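S2.1 Query sequence (Negative regulatory protein YxlE)
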Amino acid sequence: MDTLNWALIAPLIVIQFVLMIMALIDIKRIHATNGPKWVWILVVIVVNTIGPIVYFIFGRKNV
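Output structure tokens follow.
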């Protein structure tokens, strides 16, 4: 555990960051969500990689 393989970890960190930013931008732009927007913001930020995926599946309201 002394050395980390950054070639494997760095892409996961980038994907997590990109998903979080995309979800937060979408929450800001979208007119209505399934539930309060502040709850989805907390889910996206706190639950890291799974939070944005859950938001895109369940949080967006189909118009």
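The longest helix spans residues 6-29. The two ends are 49 Å apart (CA to CA).
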